[in-house]
Amino acid sequence: MNINAHTHIFDSQCAPKDFLKVGLNIGDNTAALLEGFLQNKIGQGVVNALYGASSRIGKHNNLISRYTEFLKIGTMATQKDIFEFNEQTYDSNFLAGIKFVVLTLDMDYMSDSKNKPVADFESQIDEVKRLKQYYPDRVFPFLGVDPRNPRNLDFNNNVQSLLESKTFSGIKLYPSHGFFPFDPRLDQLYSYAQQNNIPIMTHCTRSGSFFIGNNVWSLIPDAPEAINAGYSMDGIYNRIQLYKHATDKLFKQNARICNLFLHPENYLPVLYKYPKLKLCLAHLGGEYEVLGSLNNNKQEKALFEKIYALEAATKTWYQWIKEILKTYDNAYSDISYTLSSGQAMQTVYNDLTSGDLPKEKVLFGTDYFLVEQEGQEMDIVANAKKILQGEFQTLLSNGKNYLFQ
Amino acid sequence: MVKISNMLDVLISFCLIYFLLSNLVSILFEWYSQKTKSRGKFLFNAVLSLLNDRLNKSYGVLVYSHPLVDALKKDNKTPPQYISSSVFADAFIDVIGRQSIKVTYQNIVTNDGIQVIPTEERNSNPFERFRLGVDSMKHSELKELLRMFYEKSNSSYDTLKLTIAVWYDDYMERVSGWYKVSTKKTIRIIAFMVCISLNVDSIRILNVLLRDDNNLRANLVSGAEQLVQSPGSYRAISDTNKTIETIKEVIKQSQSTKDSINRIYLARLDSSLDQIESYSLPIGWVSSYPPCSFFVNKSGDSACAKKPDDTTCVKKTCDTICITKTSDGRLLKSILLWIAGIFISTLTLSFGAPFWFDVLVNLINIRRAGAKPEKAVTTKADNS
Fold first, then answer.
1. Full-model pTM
2. Residue B86: which H helix or E strand, with range?
3. Is the ipTM of this complex over 0.90?
4. Distance from CA of B103 to the nearest CA of A (A)
5. Contacts of B102 in chain A (CB under 8 A)
6. Set of chain A residues whose Cβ sits within 8 Å of the Cβ of B57
7. How far apart are CA B1 and CA B22, in angstroms?
8. E strands, chain B, where?
9. Inter-chain contact A119–B109, Cβ cutoff 8 Å?
10. Residue B189 falls in which region: left (phi positive, over 0), alpha (psi -120 to 50) or beta
11. Looking at residue A36, what is its pLDDT?
């Protein structure tokens, strides 16, 4: 049984109104300009024309066609449309019949209240519930949880019942939207998940979506309260201070500050308390962290070195994750999004074959449709398959243990 | 001095011209709305603000993804331009009722794969399902409203549906008003584009109508009477206005397009231009009309051929034009008058065809009420 353990199908209505700056990885001002342009009929016409032209000439690797492809999917009408687009793509390729973990994201709190999504999280999961009815043995949704959302206060009705009915097969955490994974409000969730072997998928890479509201520091106290598990929080608290007092403008951007929520070390207080928790630290830390200073891309390498200088880091996130996978029986990671980097996949392949990265603990996932920013999904998958060789099939079938054992 | 009856004829002629051109603006606006889906998007936002319940869910989004409404979409990205109250009520009742449905799944994992068996717990009575759905909601304004609806419905689905349909229709009446207000700016832009592309200069039209060149006024008044008697009637008078002919040629070429909606609008546009063309209106980019006429050497094209020192020949869409280096202030005055003419036309065309048709009907009725002096004199002479 092949499983793509990491896909997204949220549509533009599920995302805050200012989501574009995350989706296209651009600054606030550029995003505002581009949003204005795309809301304009002429702008939409231009995107469609560019997409049409790039499709006709078969160029899918240039920046414009990649972004227009991403926008095209992201602006489809419903989550069902976005899922079916992906499903049909796979079914006409070498991974026909693959199962999909569909990760819902609670985006109601990832921006200021004036920019709340048109479709709130409750209606997002309502649509996913229907999708599960349409494709019961194809779609395995994960329920997004944000401790700030009051819906989670009624844990029995709004979380537990959805997991017990198996409408949702797991939990999705996206800490960079504005919370720490060791937040005590998640204690009940972790306890329930460990007891019932419910898989949890997190986001663990420096890129991706993040809190886009105005005052991110209001979410980060000097010493955030943590699940009391005896884990020393010094390293985590120290990192917060380093970012708070950073002078470089780069570290005043939300995209960088939100890395504080994502650091793999943040999961150690949780795993200290719940060592059997089935937890997947997604993306293997991301391309930057897998390659570190060996990155062929000079800009990425320079950014990596800047961040490490600030954090006074001694190991990469990739190294943190490898250690966690080796220490905790039910800890996993996946290759989603990172698989778009051929160089990173080569490193992963070397580590899988040498045993440095436990191969039974790494899942196949793509991060559809966000990965479309890097190219066509099936091209990326085919490239990763080529690099990972025999290990690719192992990763594809690891999802079965993660989901159902 | 202009006689009152002549003045009435001028007014009627003006109204007919504005009616014909407003009709063109309306077609272009409808086409634009169709292409940009603006009407559908406006309706979508209106339904969202009606149904989004902060304490519960974004029900508006769920109504739009309901199969009954989803089927009305032309494609994935085009929201329906219209949702009937009957479809809305059925979809909304189902969306609320769906909240009471409980589905559980049993996963049977084997070496070969997985079998998932769903079990659905669902009340088959849609009215009862709606009641259970409302009961499961958190207390909110929408819940209060929905509870009132089903309490008034005496356990009848039809009554419930009718109550919700009436509620929706009332709301849609207000939405239509909001939409009209929101589209005014776009209509003005389209009206301006029509005025520029056809060179609709109200001041020039007034001058021509007052002079009554080529019996234009009589033609227009007669056309107006026919139009009022049988709206939609066409007059087939040949003319050689190059601007309209050029536009029609473009339309003919575009009609080969595969898009059926485009074809419909192109046909309507063609027919509207036919009607405008049939009256030989003093519009278009012709060398004798402003602003082209400002630059034409009075001695004509032959003067251009000689290329005197004070002229430069340039090829333009209208004709070969000679720009005269004139030093007097008359050119500036003419340009300002032309701009004012275009501005007045833009404003008047944005009032819409129905407005001008109503004015036209009233003026024709006034005209019919009064005696026609010439005929009266003739009759008197005949009698004597």
1. 0.76
2. helix B85-98
3. no
4. 7
5. 165
6. 120, 122-123, 126
7. 31
8. 102-109, 114-121, 311-315, 320-324
9. no
10. alpha
11. 55
